[in-house]
Amino acid sequence: SVGHRADRRPGEAPEGTVFMSRTKSFTRRTRELPANLARTWEAHAHRYVVEPRRGVGYTTVAPDFTLDLAELFGRSAPVTLEIGSGTGEQIVAAAAAHPERNFLALEVWVPGIAKLVSKAVEAGVDNIRVIEADAAQALPIMLEDACLDEVWTFFPDPWRKARHRKRRLVSDSFACEVARLLRDGGMWRLATDWDDYAWQMRDVIEACEFFENPHA
C-alpha cells in the first residue's frame, strides 16, 4: 500500500486520439457467455454493469463520457476502485464486509464481469458497479480529480517477456494518474506474484513525488 500526498497532476488522454461514440446493449454479451452466466447477465446486469458511451472498440470510453459517482451509487460514500477485478472475489467480499463504502470495478474480461455479477447477487450486495473498460484509456476521461479513497491494482498482467514489459500497467505515467484520482491521504494498494514486477512497482512508487510508502 502507498499513501497519496497532497499534490496531484491531471492525467490526459493521448494527444491526437480519435474516438467514435457508440452504444451497445446488454444482450450482445450474453451470446458470448455460457448459458448459466448469460441468464445471470440478462437478469442482473442492469443492477451492476455500467454501460458507457464508447470510443473505438468495446473496452474504450468516449472522450466526453464522465461518471458522477454519487449519482451512480445513489449516495455519497468513500469509493474504492479495483482495476482488473477478475471474477470479483476480492471486491464482492469487501463490499459485503463494508456496506458503508462504494466499490467500482474496471475489467475487460466479460466472463469475469458476469461471474462478478453472479457473486454480487449471491452475496446480496448493491454497493458495487462494474465497467467493461481499459483503465489506462478510461480513467483520465471519466473520473474527476480526488474522487477516490482507495485504488486496488492486484495481480495485473505481468507481461512476462522482456520485450513486452513496456505494456505493464504500473508505470510512471499511470502512477500520476492514480495520484490525480485519489483524495489526499488515499491509498493505492498493489500486489503481484512476479518478483521483477514487484521491484518495478516499488521503483515507480519511489520515483513518484505524489506518494509515500507508509510501510517504509
Secondary structure blueprint with pairings:
Layout: E1 2-4, H1 26-30, H2 35-48, E2 49-50, H3 69-73, E3 79-83, H4 89-97, E4 102-107, H5 110-123, E5 128-132, H6 135-142, E6 148-154, H7 172-181, E7 182-191, H8 195-207, E8 211-212
Parallel strand pairs: 2-5, 3-4, 3-6, 4-5, 6-7
Antiparallel strand pairs: 1-7, 1-8
Please provide a written account of the structure.
The protein is of the alpha/beta class. 36% of the residues lie in helices and 19% in strands. It has eight helices and eight strands; from the N terminus they run βααβαβαβαβαβαβαβ. Strands 2-5-4-3-6-7-1-8 form an eight-stranded mixed β-sheet, sandwiched between helices. α4 (89-97) links the parallel β3 (79-83) and β4. α4 runs parallel beside α5 (110-123). The longest helix has 14 residues, at 35-48. The chain is globular and about 45 Å long. The model is unreliable at 8-14 and 16-30 (pLDDT under 50).
